[in-house]
């Protein structure tokens, strides 16, 4: 067993005082004790705890969190814990109390969140913990509702978050190689990790201080890339674990998907079927934990939603518990919204909308209710599950029994039918049972089935969208067409095609590549050939839009061949390269290439203009971005026109209008199904990118409804700014309220304010 031993006069620290701030700071050291030393340490710890008082480990709100091979142990009690991921920047502070309350009502004990480095340290040494980034406020709300927290510091997080959560300024640190035994990277990683740990300590948020945080995570699914770094990968794992433990949080650390996690760090499982795929802890002294049980999956532009049934989730939760699992986190319990430009490459703005709480925080039934029922059943069996002896044996060709017996105190059985098509009739303890296909029946007394994972009692619900406003009045809109730069307009020039991300520094999705050239008079029927490792390209010849092209999440590069018209004399070629989020995973993230890789104009079989090593002019971002015309105070920086033109050759247009907030408390969304691709701001705050023109294999957009949090709104006079890259029609944008109702009803549920 690994015991986190308090030093600095433990007993004295718990003496009564009228000034809690004067209490000696408890520092934590991690001590790995051998079998020979175990009895002595147990004697010392028990003696100290008994001297503290009748409450045992809990003293004035402080929790002792340890673990053994069975579970986490909090204040001397083993725990089966259900956890739910809710990411604070993917919602608003006004939503946090409701989301956490609904998770608690659903039987969740722990709220799990990543920490988002690029939000909190946008520039080296400059920190931001305000508004949606207020991590301390989020932790305190968890505590106020009586739940625990798991803080996944990373600071690499992936999470379908742009650049995996890294701030892009890391890219420019000399000699840096991410996530390996590299001194520059380790310096900044340790600096940020320490910053977060010290912030939590300063607010008393670790369980060892009476706070809610019972677990922390360092790194994230590193084993996926560890082999790419050879021996430096293993060295980095050892360093990261030691660095984290040495920070003295007083609670255990975990590494997910990391079978070589060094003691005392716990290796955990991520995935949809950890009851089947997890090889188990790498030490008999560590509990079996599941840090990411994917309740659906992230969705990309051009991709269909991943629908995971309540039955499937419940089956694998029950199987993991039957195999001695004791901690299960739902990723996500509430997914929320990728506001602004925070989504990673090709990921849509809505995140895990199929979670038990949907993007707006509304119940996703039957998923929420079925899991709530499962949680209650398992918790009622916690004593034999945690203290009993487990046996497992075959009860049929595709059937298995897992039985936990605690002497005469209790017995619980899990009867598993792995046959996905047929019912199974079987005998267990002199009783006959019929199991549904691909299901697990739970018998809390080893006699009577009280829950079956495939038998859903919760009624399904449906989402209701109620139109609140149509933006169809022509005179309510104004537009500003962004400027197409030419070579002579640029101040940054180079004799090659520059890499997109290194040039923009993630300050914008957009990078202009411009050139001027004069073709020979013999150039007839010219074709512009473009090869790109970016995501989207918009091409212009002599300031006129020609064509747009794009790749996809699964196709990393794309080619365009575009017939064009050239004029006699000098021609201007302007190509806009667009990134729809930065990559978030894989080794050597700092070395990725994006942007244009080849540009040619073919005039004939013998006449070819190759501009790959030509003199190019560059401009980062759009003029409207630079002037921040999405903010009310900057509207006068450009000239807006009341003549709305959304013809086929219209592109890069900013539209503005105002609207009043719908009455009531229902969540709000914009329907952008008439638009093409771009970004939307409400009162200066970006609600995210949209890409409605990128259709799925079924011929429909991946997302049309875009969440507008009520916290972004005023009662009236709300400023709506839409940046449209293509030729979408703003006159068919509409505003809706969102609610849910039973599947066979039109009566919405009541829900709390947003």
UniProtKB/TrEMBL annotation:
State the source organism's domain of life.
Eukaryota
The keyword Transcription regulation is assigned to this record: no
Q: Which GO terms describe its biological process?
A: galactose catabolic process; plant-type cell wall modification
Which subcellular locations apply to this protein? Secreted, Extracellular space, Apoplast
Instruction: Quote any Pfam family the record assigns.
Output: Glyco_hydro_35
Task: Please name the PROSITE patterns in this protein's record.
Answer: GLYCOSYL_HYDROL_F35 (PS01182)
The molecule here is called Beta-galactosidase
**Native source organism of the sequence:** Theobroma cacao (Cacao)
């Amino acid at each position: 067993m690994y015991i986190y031993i308090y030093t600095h006069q433990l007993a004295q620290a718990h003496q009564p005082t009228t000034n809690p701030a004067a209490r000696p700071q408890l520092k934590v050291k991690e001590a790995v004790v051998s079998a020979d030393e175990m009895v002595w340490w147990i004697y010392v710890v028990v003696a100290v705890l008994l001297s503290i008082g009748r409450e045992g480990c809990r003293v004035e709100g402080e929790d002792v969190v340890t673990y053994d091979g069975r579970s986490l142990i909090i204040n001397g009690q083993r725990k089966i814990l259900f956890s739910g991921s809710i990411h604070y920047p993917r919602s608003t502070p006004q939503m946090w109390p409701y989301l956490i309350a609904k998770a608690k009502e659903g039987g969740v004990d722990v709220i799990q969140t990543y920490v988002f480095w690029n939000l909190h340290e946008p520039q080296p040494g400059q920190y931001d913990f305000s508004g949606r980034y207020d991590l301390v406020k989020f932790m305190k709300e968890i505590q106020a509702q009586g739940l625990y927290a798991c803080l996944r510091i990373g600071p690499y997080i992936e999470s379908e978050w742009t650049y995996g959560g890294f701030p892009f300024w890391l890219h420019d640190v000399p000699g840096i190689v991410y996530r390996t035994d590299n001194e520059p990277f380790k310096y900044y990683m340790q600096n940020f990790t320490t910053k977060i740990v010290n912030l939590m300590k300063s607010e008393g948020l670790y369980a060892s201080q009476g706070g809610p945080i019972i677990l922390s995570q360092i790194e994230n699914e590193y084993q996926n890339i560890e082999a790419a770094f050879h021996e430096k990968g293993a060295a980095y794992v050892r360093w990261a674990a030691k660095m984290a433990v040495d920070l003295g949080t007083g609670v255990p650390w975990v590494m997910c998907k990391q079978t070589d996690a060094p003691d005392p760090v716990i290796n955990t499982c991520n995935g949809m079927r950890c009851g089947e795929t997890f090889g188990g802890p790498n030490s008999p002294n560590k509990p079996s934990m599941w840090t990411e049980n994917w309740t659906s999956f992230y969705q990309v532009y051009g991709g269909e939603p991943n629908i995971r049934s309540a039955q499937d989730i419940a089956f694998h939760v029950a199987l993991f518990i039957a195999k001695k699992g004791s901690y299960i986190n739902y990723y996500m319990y509430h997914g929320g919204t990728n506001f602004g430009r925070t989504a990673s490459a090709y990921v849509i703005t809505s995140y895990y909308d199929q979670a038990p709480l949907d993007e707006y925080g509304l119940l996703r039934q039957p998923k929420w209710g079925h899991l709530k029922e499962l949680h209650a059943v398992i918790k009622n069996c916690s004593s034999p599950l945690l203290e009993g002896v487990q046996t497992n044996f075959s009860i049929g060709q595709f059937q298995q029994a897992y039985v936990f017996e605690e002497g005469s105190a209790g017995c619980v059985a899990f009867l598993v039918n792995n046959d996905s098509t047929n019912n199974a009739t079987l005998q267990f303890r002199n009783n006959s049972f019929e199991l549904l296909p691909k299901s697990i029946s739970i018998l809390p007394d080893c006699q009577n089935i009280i829950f079956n994972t495939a038998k859903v009692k919760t009624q399904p619900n449906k989402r209701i969208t109620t139109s609140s406003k149509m933006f169809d009045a022509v005179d309510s809109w104004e537009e500003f067409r962004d400027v197409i730069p030419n070579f002579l307009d640029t101040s940054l020039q180079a004799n090659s095609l520059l890499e997109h991300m290194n040039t923009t520094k993630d300050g914008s999705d957009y990078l202009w590549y411009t050139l001027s050239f004069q073709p020979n008079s013999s150039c007839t029927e010219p074709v512009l050939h473009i090869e790109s490792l970016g995501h989207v390209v918009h091409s212009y010849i002599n300031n006129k839009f020609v064509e747009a092209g794009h790749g996809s999440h699964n196709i990393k590069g794309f080619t365009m061949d575009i017939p064009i018209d050239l004029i006699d004399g000098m021609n201007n070629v302007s190509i806009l390269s667009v990134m729809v989020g930065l990559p978030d995973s894989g080794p050597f993230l700092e070395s990725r290439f994006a942007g244009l890789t080849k540009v040619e104009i073919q005039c004939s079989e013998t006449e070819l203009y190759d501009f790959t090593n030509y003199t190019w002019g560059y401009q980062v971002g759009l003029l409207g971005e630079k002037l921040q015309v999405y903010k009310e105070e900057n509207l006068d920086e450009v000239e807006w026109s009341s003549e709305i033109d959304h013809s086929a050759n219209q592109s890069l247009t900013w539209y503005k209008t105002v609207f009043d907030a719908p009455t009531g408390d229902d969540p709000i969304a914009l329907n952008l199904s008439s638009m093409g691709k771009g970004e939307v701001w409400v009162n200066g705050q970006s609600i995210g990118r949209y890409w409605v023109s990128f259709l799925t294999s079924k011929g429909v957009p991946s997302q049309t409804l875009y969440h507008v949090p009520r916290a972004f709104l005023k009662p009236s006079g709300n400023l709506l700014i839409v940046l449209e890259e293509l030729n979408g029609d703003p006159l068919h944008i509409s505003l809706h309220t969102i609610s849910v109702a039973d599947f066979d009803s039109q009566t919405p549920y009541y829900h709390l304010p947003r």
